[in-house]
Amino acid sequence: MITFNDLEFKQDIQRGLNAARVMFDNGYGVSVIIGPHTYGGEDGLYELGVLGKDGKLTYDTPVTDDVEGYLTEEGVTEFLKQIQNL
Fold first, then answer.
1. What is the pTM of this model?
2. How far apart are CA 21 and CA 51, in angstroms?
3. Per-residue confidence at 18, pLDDT binned at 50, 70, 90?
4. How high is the pLDDT of residue 55?
């Protein structure tokens, strides 16, 4: 089971943020970002979006129908678990 601690963040200078992206065996994935213009970034919190099989954001899952912001590391891990269990 992948958790927050397994994510590898890379600096995206063009967008001014740090981003991690991972795809799971079930075809879903996540994009986790933090930066001054992300939901919660100014408070040191993370934003997470669910990725579909095409690698693009999807808004149609049982987990969420939008991006999720203001997440702690533990909150990100909780979403990671739910998405991996789809």
1. 0.95
2. 9
3. very high
4. 95
Q: What count of residues does the chain have?
A: 86
* Tokens matching residue 86: 């789809």
| Secondary structure element (H or E) that encloses residue 4, with its range | none
Nearest alpha carbon to residue 45 among 80, 8, 14, 17: 17
Give the three-class secondary structure for 31.
Answer: strand
- Nearest to residue 67, comparing CAs of 79, 85, 55? 79
User: What would you report as the CA-atom Rg of the chain, rounded to the nearest whole angstrom?
Assistant: 12
* Nearest Cα residue to 38 out of 65, 12, 63: 12
Q: Which two tokens stand for residue 11?
A: 């600096």
Q: Look up residue 76 and give its amino acid.
A: V
